[in-house]
Amino acid sequence: DLLEGRLASATSKCAADADALRSTGAAQAQELEALRSVLARHAAVPDRLDRAERDLGKMTDCHIAELSATHAKVDQIHNHLLAVKAQCACADDLRKENASLEAKYSSLGERFDILEKSLSTLAENHLSQLEALSDGHAKSKKDFEDAYINSKKEL
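^ that's the sequence the OP posted. Answer follows.
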């Protein structure tokens, strides 16, 4: 009986150990499947990395081309800006020269007005002197004609 008890005890212990091994084996099988799926994902990583590197290379080339075009446009705008600045400098010089000429000739209108008044006054004086001379000449002519007529009468 003792032997049977020990054998039953050992059998139940073996059965418990076998159950534990089965459950551990099942857990290990699940872990193995998880590792296999992780490994499968990791196996796809080099392909995905190669694809990402190709895409990144294409995008880099595209961005380099766009950046070059942008630099060309910036250079074009810069050259245009320099031309505009040069024109502005010329325009500023012309404005300064114009202001200088305006300052120089601003009194020209006043001076012409003064000259016109002076010429008008001189013309009026000359006209009055001419009229006086004409009157004097007419009087002298009349006196001369009267004297001539009187001298003819006396003769």
